[in-house]
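$ fold --in a.seq
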Amino acid sequence: MDSTKKQILLIHGGEVFDSYDTYIEHLKTAEFEPERGKRWRDSLQEELADNFDLIAPLMPCKQNAKYEEWKIWFEKSFPYLKDDIVLIGVSLGGMFLAKYLSENSFPKKISATYLLAPPYDNVGADYSLGDFVLPDSLERIKEQGGQIYLYHSEDDPIVPFSNIEQYAEALPGAKKVTFKDKGHFMGEEFPELIDSLKKLI
């Protein structure tokens, strides 16, 4: 990695189930996708190559995610990180970062934390959060997360749009960025995020 560039550490999303049996039933009924299709994350390094190095670990068993497993794997990245890093968490990955930074000390200085459509709780939703449930206070994120950005779209079919207000209340000072038509941020392009990241240079 180029020592002159800033780093981005991106944590992808995942699914959580209350029990292994529930997970198995989900696999039996879920639709198989032979091709995922291109998403904005696939070209993130290319878009930002002049100024950033991207670290995007594959978190353990994202189809049946467990917080403790993700925490162990996340911490294995620490020896490769440097100060002024940018953290991006997408969906469950955003909730993971919110929980981790609320309960633990991050070893490097964080310049910015982006939480993209993260669940806050599962009120009004049809998914479990398992052991990803947030603590009562997110105070430690404010202390160590740098500038915090909250992204959400009004037409998100998975995470209720109301969750962004819950995060905003828990994280005063965070910058809210809302959209009307970006769903759960699974599109091929995300120029608004790219532009925001470039402004961090």
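$ fold --in b.seq
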Amino acid sequence: MKTCTVAGCDKPFRARGMCSGHYYHWHKENGGPFYRTVKDRLFLKIEHDEETGCWLWTGAAVPTGYGKINIGGNYVPTHRAMYELLAGPIPEGLVIDHLCRNPPCCNPGHLEPVTVAENTRRGIWPPPSPTCRRGHEYTTENTYRTPSNPKRRACRTCKLERERKRRRSARAA
């Protein structure tokens, strides 16, 4: 088993030829991640976009593009951490809205605390399609709501075609 390379220490090796204790102290002296403040860790991974004014997070991110940082053993969205660090606490019951609509942005000037409903209203959602999958236009005569999900639109023309096909195959059998 490898041991610590520091003179007089015979503890098991961890990294860089040192035991856990010596490795920890080496990091402390060299400004390792154990001793960086949250502010230092946040600003280490930010690039400034001169055109938009966004502060783009270049570190770890979730699939939707929002950055994340580990603070006290918990992953926190970077835009929330940056807002709390530079603008103050987020009021209870509010979420942070990106005014620039750029998920990796951490610029507190581009962030605003709003209600969930307001954040949803401001969101960019694709408008509902004017046609069904097969290209039939959704009109009042050609559209019905399904009994299992009244919010879902369905095409009457497609339903009639499915019924005709089902009846043909039933007669043939």
